[in-house]
C-alpha cells in the first residue's frame, strides 16, 4: 500500500492510498514450484527432514522463493516450512551486538589533532530490510560509525571533547540511528572510550595547569597574610588599651620560652621597668 496526496483545483489536499499487488508468478517459476512439490511428495517422508526448519526465540528467517521475497514477512520464532530446490532462507540475529570503533585521528575545530575511540551497541529491528536493503549490515554500520565519529570531532573544540563526552556520544548515536534506519538497524548506545592527545600538547596542558595552581596558591597565601595582619593589628589595639593584658602576654611568652630546652634563656624586661630610669636620666 502506497500513501500520497493530490492538490485539488480549489487548493485543498486530497489523500489517496494505492495497493500494489505483487508480480504474478511466471510460467517458469510455476513449473519449478510444481516440480519441487512433486519431488517432495515422491521422496516423502525423507524430504520432510529438509523442509522443516527451526529458528530460536532471538532469530528470524527471511525466505526467498526463486529469488523473490516471500509474502508474510520474516518467519520465527519456531518452526517453518521451505520447499527444496526453490526456497532459500537467511537467519537474522535480533540480539544486541557491540563492536569497537578503531581509534580515529581527527582535527578538531580549534586545529588540534586528537585520537578518539568508541564502542557502539546496535540490534536488528527489521529483518527484511537488514537482508534486502544492504549487503552486509554489520560491516556497513562499522564503516559508518568510523566516518561519523571523525565528522563529529571536526565540529567540536578540544575543551568540549575533553569535558563533554556524553554530548558527543548522543550526537553520534542520533546520526548513526538516522543513517541506519533504512537498513533495519537500531543503534541503541554509543560510548566514547578514550581521548588521546599528542605528547607535546599534554606537556603544555600540564604546565598550564601547574601554573594555574601556583597562581591560585599565591593568591590564597596573600589573602591569608592580609587577614593575619588585620588580626594582629586588632590584637595590638586591645593590648595597648589594657596594660594588664600586656603583662599577661609577657608571662605567656616566658612560659613558651621555658618549655624549650635551651642552655641560655634571655628574659626580656618590660618597658614599665625601664621608663622611670629613663625619666631620671632626662
UniProtKB/TrEMBL annotation:
Transmembrane segments: 32-55
Domain Band: 50-209
Source superkingdom: Eukaryota
UniProt KW keywords: Membrane, Transmembrane, Transmembrane helix
Subcellular locations according to the entry: Membrane
InterPro entries hit by this protein: Band-7_stomatin-like, Band_7, Band_7/SPFH_dom_sf, Band_7/stomatin-like_CS, Stomatin_HflK_fam
Cited SUPFAM superfamilies: Band 7/SPFH domain
Pfam family, one: Band_7
Family: Belongs to the band 7/mec-2 family.
PANTHER family: AT06885P-RELATED, BAND 7 PROTEIN-RELATED
Protein name: Band 7 protein AGAP004871-like
Gene: LOC108567625
Amino acid at each position: 500500500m502506497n500513501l500520497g496526496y493530490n492538490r485539488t483545483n480549489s487548493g485543498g489536499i486530497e489523500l489517496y492510498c494505492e495497493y500494489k499487488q505483487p508480480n504474478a508468478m511466471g510460467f517458469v517459476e510455476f513449473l519449478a514450484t510444481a516440480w519441487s512439490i512433486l519431488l517432495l511428495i515422491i521422496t516423502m517422508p525423507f524430504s520432510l527432514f529438509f523442509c522443516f526448519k527451526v529458528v530460536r526465540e532471538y532469530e528470524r528467517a527471511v525466505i526467498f522463493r526463486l529469488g523473490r521475497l516471500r509474502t508474510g514477512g520474516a518467519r520465527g520464532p519456531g518452526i517453518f516450512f521451505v520447499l527444496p530446490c526453490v526456497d532459500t532462507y537467511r537467519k537474522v540475529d535480533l540480539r544486541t551486538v557491540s563492536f569497537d570503533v578503531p581509534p580515529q585521528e581527527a582535527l578538531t575545530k580549534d586545529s588540534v589533532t586528537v585520537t578518539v575511540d568508541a564502542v557502539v551497541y546496535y540490534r536488528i529491528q527489521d529483518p527484511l530490510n537488514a537482508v534486502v536493503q544492504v549487503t552486509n549490515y554489520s560491516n556497513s554500520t562499522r564503516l559508518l560509525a568510523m566516518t561519523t565519529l571523525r565528522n563529529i570531532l571536526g565540529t567540536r573544540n578540544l575543551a568540549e571533547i575533553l569535558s563533554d563526552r556524553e554530548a558527543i556520544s548522543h550526537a553520534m548515536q542520533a546520526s548513526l540511528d538516522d543513517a541506519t534506519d533504512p537498513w533495519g538497524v537500531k543503534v541503541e548506545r554509543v560510548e566514547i572510550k578514550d581521548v588521546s592527545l599528542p605528547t607535546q600538547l599534554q606537556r603544555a596542558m600540564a604546565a598550564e595547569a601547574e601554573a594555574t595552581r601556583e597562581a591560585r596558591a599565591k593568591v590564597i597565601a596573600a589573602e591569608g597574610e592580609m587577614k593575619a595582619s588585620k588580626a594582629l593589628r586588632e590584637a595590638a589595639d586591645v593590648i595597648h588599651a589594657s596594660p594588664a593584658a600586656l603583662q599577661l602576654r609577657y608571662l605567656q611568652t616566658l612560659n613558651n620560652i621555658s618549655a624549650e630546652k635551651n642552655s641560655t634563656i634571655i628574659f626580656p624586661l618590660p618597658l614599665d621597668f625601664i621608663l622611670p630610669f629613663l625619666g631620671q636620666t632626662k
